[in-house]
Amino acid sequence: MVNGSFKCLGTIQQLKYKFGDGYVVTMKIRASKAGCAPDLNPAEAFMESTFPGCVQREKHYNTLQYKIASSSLARIFQMVLANKDQLNIEDYSVSQTTLDQVFVNFAKQQSREDEAIVLHPKAAGAQQGGQGTPVKRLRK
């Protein structure tokens, strides 16, 4: 439900396919020499040139993670596998948008109408007739 209207219905896979926003590619890069830090630059350049518009989500010591919005799953696997040795990719994974992220995307569509909502006086905690509860004052 978004702004009071029903937006989607289906199985988990149907919802992820229809409303998901692409794939996440995670790569672990191996160092070219033992004891050296891995060079992530070739893999970064490859991702940016092969998948224009991809967004780097994480970058750690030897790990890169990208969000790819529009590409086929087969093309992602084909391109990464074809360049795996050249880029020193030790391990990689490709995953769909999570169902949680699909729901977060719907929640972003929810308009901020909280300030425009006028509550009935009873709902706001007021008493009937507009009179409050009398307060007793204590004397010492």
Q: Would you tell me the structural class of the helices and strands?
A: alpha+beta
Average pLDDT for all residues = 82
Q: How much strand content do the residues show?
A: 15-25%
Number of helices: 4
List the helices and strands and how they pair.
Layout: H1 12-19, E1 23-29, H2 41-50, E2 55-59, E3 63-68, H3 73-82, E4 89-96, H4 99-109
Antiparallel strand pairs: 1-3, 1-4, 2-3
Task: Please give a structural write-up.
The protein is elongated, with a radius of gyration of 26 Å. It has a 4-stranded antiparallel beta sheet with strand order 2-3-1-4, covered by helices on one side. It has helices at residues 12-19, 41-50, 73-82, 99-109; strands at residues 23-29, 55-59, 63-68, 89-96. With 140 residues, it is of the alpha+beta class. The protein is 28% helix and 19% strand. The protein has a domain at 22-100: ACT domain (Alpha-Beta Plaits), CATH 3.30.70.260.
